[in-house]
């Protein structure tokens, strides 16, 4: 006898079998509401994994199908989680990011230990050296 009343009976969302001690949540992508028994969970996992293997990987930037291994974007690039890039797009994104962080956005000189962030009103992407920041700030 339970202290708080009778325990609710839960059935598997796929086969309808009464669930005992072990209940499994379906993946969000599966489109199944409710809980699953062990057998149905294993079967649905297998089906989902086979579907994933069949679909080709697509580059998140250019939209082309990736042949071979895809490259995961670096976390600093602030791209969607799970996105993949082809070799050309990865190299381009990497060089753009390095240029943006290591070189002045106006004069292209190498940034040293100290660099300056442009004001949002200037609409400049990247960092600035002191000379460019001062000249831009004095303009208004």
Structure notes:
- It contains three helices and no strands.
- It is an all-alpha fold.
- The mean pLDDT is 86.
- It is 31% helix and 0% strand.
Oligomer, anyone? Answer: single chain
Q: What's the N-to-C terminus distance?
A: 78 Å
What is the overall silhouette? elongated
Unreliably modeled segments: none
What's a concise summary of this model?
With 140 residues, the chain is an all-alpha fold.
Keywords:
140 residues; 3 helices; elongated; mainly alpha
Write the layout of secondary structure elements.
Layout: H1 38-54, H2 87-102, H3 130-139
């Amino acid at each position: 006898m339970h202290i708080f009343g009778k325990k609710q009976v839960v059935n598997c969302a796929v086969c309808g079998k009464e669930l005992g001690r072990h209940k499994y949540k379906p993946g969000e992508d599966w489109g199944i509401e409710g809980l699953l028994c062990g057998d149905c969970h294993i079967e649905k996992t297998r089906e989902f994994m086979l579907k994933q293997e069949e679909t080709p990987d697509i580059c998140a930037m250019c939209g082309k199908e990736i042949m071979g291994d895809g490259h995961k974007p670096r976390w600093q690039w602030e791209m969607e989680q799970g996105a993949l890039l082809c070799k050309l797009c990865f190299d381009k994104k990497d060089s753009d990011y390095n240029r943006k962080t290591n070189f002045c956005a106006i004069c292209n000189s190498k940034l040293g230990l100290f660099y300056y962030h442009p004001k949002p009103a200037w609409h400049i992407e990247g960092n600035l050296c002191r000379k460019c920041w001062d000249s831009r700030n004095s303009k208004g």
